[in-house]
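INFO  loader      accepted 1 record
INFO  loader      residues=378
INFO  predictor   begin
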Amino acid sequence: MDLLLASTPAPEQTGGGFDLFGIILWPLKWAVEAVLVFWHWLFTAIGLPPADGITWVLSIVGLVIVVRSAMIPLFVRQIKSQRKMMEIAPELRKVQEKYKGKRDQLSREAMSRETMALYKKHGTTPVSSCLPLLVQMPVFFALFSVLNDVTRHYNAGVGGVGLLNAELTAEFYNAKLFGVASLHETLIDAINTGNTPAILILLTLVVLMIVSQFFTQLQIISKNLSPEAKTGQAYQMQKIMLYVLPFAFVFSGVFFPLGVVIYWFVSNLWTMGQQFLVIREMPTPGSDAAKEREERLARKGKAIDASGKVVPMEKYQAEQQRLFEEAERAKAAAPKRQQPVSKQRAKKQAQKQPGAKPGGGKPADETDAGAPGPRPAS
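INFO  predictor   done
INFO  writer      dumping tokens
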């Protein structure tokens, strides 16, 4: 513990004063540095130059692998939550239509209760679909802080908050990708110094980031949405974000160091590949991706049973036959619902019954007891 505290920057090194954000990020920054140093040690051990740019770039790639692998359970939860949000979109619209135009407090509370009841029933919330991003953002801020502080720590002759000591900080600062672009260099720095190769590298990475982000979102809205989901407001928002969100990366290419841009691009590639596998193997029921999966399974003599498991086609057909027979028996056993009829139609039906009098009176054998019989003729 004394070693860890001794490696933490002193207040005067961070600009003085109480740095709450720095205190919150300290554990994450320590973890980021530990992962970077581990991968750097590993690649150095297999023969890569310790101060070479490719060694540190591969270390950043290793950091992406560790962080994204740890978030796979959250990612699966996100996919399921997004799917459920799309499925309940029609029900949410019904609730909104029910209270449309009602602005009183009781109506708003009732609408909120019914909406929360829907979320609870389907086991999802709007926040659940954003959870992996919310978890990853502090890690990203910690990485940005670590790489952004390299120049300041190098000039001060100190290391980071943990295992990234002064010697490794100097190696990272002096490392250049392809021998021309420093990992701590931003696009603004490259423009100010006239470093044309660094400018081209950063611009290329930004374009690749935009393209990868665009295709990741396009996979979702083009293949993995059911027809019902494509009629909801959430689908319209996704279409807007498809074209708006990728351009946010333009600003990252301007203000972020090259090392952070590399991290973000590799993370986008991971997301795109992970999304492709999820859509292929866990598509939304009723979507185009689900139909394609069913066709692939059918060519292999397999199908998806009622519980969602992949089974042989013979077992699937037997299950379908059993479910059909159960449905027919339930239909036959269910009491038939008598359709309501008007009084005039009911009167006509009663006249057609056997034993009914032509005038609609009671049958002869149902004459009221005690009624006088026919009078004899005089």
